[in-house]
């Protein structure tokens, strides 16, 4: 099993130690947090010195985000790391199209935002009262659909990223040849372009919700959300809500999960 560490800031390169053989770098949830080329170069230099593998992580994007990604994709596509292949985690089908058209030497990996499954912790309040078939439904993913798996393989996608959801995951689909990365300990619940952290420190704008100029409030503030209906606290960081689950799913050892991605901090 391969162990990777996922960071969104070069300051967090300090978390990379001998446990890890791969660095994940970038952001999944906000195009405003796409790293600049200087930060990418720092991460690349770091992995080259350690002979480590590298995965660039990208978010869902607008046209503005695509323009920000192009210099990064060009940079990693020009890297010469011997037999090592550079991966790009995409969370937007438009980014996959760009990879297919312009950067065929990069290895596309389907991000966890495109892995459709029930994520909300609230499900755990009722799951023990549900019929077996319903529980199995909530533990299933879109990789159970042969047509979808066929689409992935047609597009050279052999790896899919997974959150460690509370209700466990049915890994029966692994027999179809798709490999899995499991993220620990932070799982995302929901995300939006309407960033609720925007202007959170300006009292007269507390009631305003919308898409406004970004001041990177998410880099200064983290919100803890607690409710009796939730079995675990929720964490709101910028435009995304997470929860923490440090316990691997049932069947983890038997599931042949080939990679564990450790998030030492919420990757925002």
Describe this structure in words.
The chain has 268 residues and is α/β, with parallel strands linked by helices. The chain has one domain: TIM Barrel. It is 20% helix and 21% strand. It is built from five helices and twelve strands. The strands form two sheets. It has an eight-stranded parallel β-sheet, with helices on one face. Strand 4 (87-90), helix 3 and strand 5 (107-110) form a beta-alpha-beta unit. Helix 1 (37-49) runs parallel beside helix 2. The chain is globular and about 55 Å long. It starts with a strand and ends in a 6-residue tail after the last strand.
Helical/strand content category: alpha/beta
pLDDT < 50 runs, ≥5 residues: none
* Distinct helical segment count: 5
Largest sheet: 8 strands, parallel
Q: Distance between the terminal alpha carbons, to the nearest Å?
A: 26 Å
Number of domains: 1
Q: Report the β-strand fraction as a percent range.
A: 15-25%
Strand line-up across the major sheet: 5-4-3-2-1-12-7-6
How much is the radius of gyration in Å?
19 Å
Shape-level CATH architecture:
Alpha-Beta Barrel
H-E string: EEHEHEHEHHEEEEEEE
CATH topology: TIM Barrel
In percent, how helical is the residue content? 10-25%
What's the CATH class, please? Alpha Beta
Question: If you average the pLDDT, what whole number results?
Answer: 90
By DSSP, the count of extended strands is: 12
- Described by the principal axes of the CA atoms, the overall outline is globular
């Amino acid at each position: 099993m391969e162990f990777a560490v996922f960071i969104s800031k070069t300051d967090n390169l300090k978390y990379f130690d001998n446990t890890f053989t791969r660095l994940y770098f970038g952001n999944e949830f906000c195009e405003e947090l796409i790293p600049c080329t200087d930060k990418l170069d720092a991460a690349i230099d770091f992995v080259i010195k350690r002979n480590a593998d590298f995965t660039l992580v990208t978010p869902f994007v607008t046209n503005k985000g695509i323009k920000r990604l192009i210099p990064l994709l060009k940079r990693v596509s020009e890297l010469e790391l011997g037999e090592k292949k550079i991966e790009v985690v995409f969370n937007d089908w438009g980014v996959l199209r760009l990879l297919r058209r312009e950067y065929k030497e990069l290895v596309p990996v389907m991000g966890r935002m495109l892995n459709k499954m029930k994520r909300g912790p609230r499900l755990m309040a009722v799951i023990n009262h549900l019929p077996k078939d319903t529980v199995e439904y909530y533990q299933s993913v879109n990789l159970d659909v042969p047509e979808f798996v066929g689409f992935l393989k047609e597009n050279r996608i052999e790896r899919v990223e997974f959150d460690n959801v509370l209700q466990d995951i049915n890994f029966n689909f692994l027999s179809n040849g798709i490999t899995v990365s499991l993220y620990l300990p932070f799982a995302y619940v929901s995300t939006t372009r309407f960033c609720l952290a925007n202007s959170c420190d300006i009292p007269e704008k507390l009631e305003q919700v919308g898409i406004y100029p970004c001041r990177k409030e998410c880099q200064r503030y983290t919100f803890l959300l607690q409710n009796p209906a939730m079995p675990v606290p929720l964490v709101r960081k910028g435009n995304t809500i997470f929860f923490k689950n440090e316990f691997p799913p049932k069947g983890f050892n038997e599931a042949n999960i080939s990679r564990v991605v450790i998030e030492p901090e919420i990757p925002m």
